[in-house]
Amino acid sequence: MGEYAQRRLIRKIDLERFLSTVQFNPTPIVNLEQYTTSERIASIMLYIAAYTNNDIMGKCILDLGCGTGRLSLGAAFLGAESVLGVDIDRAVLKVAVANAKNVALASSVDWVNGDVSVVNGCFDTVLQNPPFGVQSRNADRAFLAKALTSGRMVYSLHNHPEMDKRLIGMLKSSGTGLFEVQPSIFLKRFIEQHGGVIRAVYAMLMSIPKMFDFHTKIRHDFVIDLYVIESSIIK
Ligand SMILES: C[S@@+](CC[C@H](N)C(=O)[O-])C[C@H]1O[C@@H](n2cnc3c(N)ncnc32)[C@H](O)[C@@H]1O
Q1: How confident is the model over 134-143, as pLDDT tens digits?
Q2: Domains in the chain and their CATH numbers?
Q3: What is the pLDDT of residue 214?
Q4: Number of CB atoms found within 10 A of residue 29's CB
Q5: Whose Cα sits closest to atom 4 in ligand 1?
Q6: Among candidates 226, 43, 62, 229, which has minimal Cα distance to 153?
Q7: pLDDT-derived band at 6, boundaries 50, 70, 90
Q8: Residue of minimum CA distance from atom 16 in ligand 1
Q9: Best substitution site from 30, 33, 117, 138 to test ligand 1's pocket, by max atoms within 8 Å of Cβ?
Q10: How far are the Cα atoms of 12, 84, 125, 132, 233 from residue 136, in angstroms, in the given order?
Q11: What pLDDT, in 10s, does the model give residues 151-183?
C-alpha cells in the first residue's frame, strides 16, 4: 500500500481533496462518454460504500470503465485490499497509471485495457460510472450485467429518468447533497432479471464542465442516481 492508503475513518472533505488530485481525461472521446466523475459525487459514493455499508476496507474492488482512475484510487485510498480498474481506452489508462504514481498508490491498483466483457472473476464490490447510453443506447446495461456476475455488492451511477426541477431544488439546498429516491422501472426490471436486489437509490446533483463541441453551456447540471445493489449470483 502507498503512503496515502487509509486504515481508519477519514473525513469526507479529505477524501474529496484527495480525489481532486486525480486528474481529468485531457482528450475525452465522445462515443465512450468519457466524463470524469466529479470529486463530490465520487466522494459521496465511496463514503456510502466504505462507511455506511463496509464494502471497501479490506475488500477486493472492481472498477468497470475506470477512466482516469478516480473511483479505483479512491477505493485504494480508503484501504481496499485490492483494486482492479478496467477500461476499453488505452490512452485513458495511461492517465490512470500516471495518476496512481502521482498519489503514491501505483502498487495498490492493477489496470486492464479491454471491454467490460473480458472480466472474469469474483470481487467483493464493483464500483462503476458507466456510459449512460446517451451516445450508444443502453450502454450502461452491459456494465450492469457484468457487474452483477462479478461482485457481491454493486455501486452504479445512472442518469436520473426525468428532469425533475423540484428534486434539483431540494438537492441544491440539502446539506448532505443526496436524497433517497425510487429506482427507474426499466432499470429495476433489468437489475432483477439479472440477479440483483436494489438496496437503495440515492439522487445527487452532478455538474460537468463543457467538454465537447455539442455542449452549449459552460457547465451542465443534472441529477445522477447511485444504485446500491446486492447480487444474488455472487455470495
Ligand atoms: C463516464 S466515464 C467514467 C470514468 C471513470 N470511472 C470516472 O468515474 O471518472 C465511462 C468510462 O467507461 C469507459 N468505457 C466505455 N465503454 C466501455 C466498454 N465497453 N468497456 C470498458 N470500458 C468502457 C470509457 O472509456 C470511460 O472511461
Answers
A1: 666 788 999 9
A2: 12-231 (3.40.50.150)
A3: 64
A4: 14
A5: 67
A6: 229
A7: low
A8: 32
A9: 33
A10: 34, 25, 26, 8, 27
A11: 999 999 999 988 788 888 888 888 788 999 999
Residue nearest to atom 14 of ligand 1 (CA): 65
Gap from CA of 173 to ligand 1 centroid (Å) = 30
Q: Give the chain's mean pLDDT.
A: 90
Looking up cell 455470495 gives 235
Q: What is the pTM of this model?
A: 0.93
Q: What whole-number distance in Å separates Cα of residue 75 and Cα of residue 142?
A: 23
Please state the length of the chain.
235
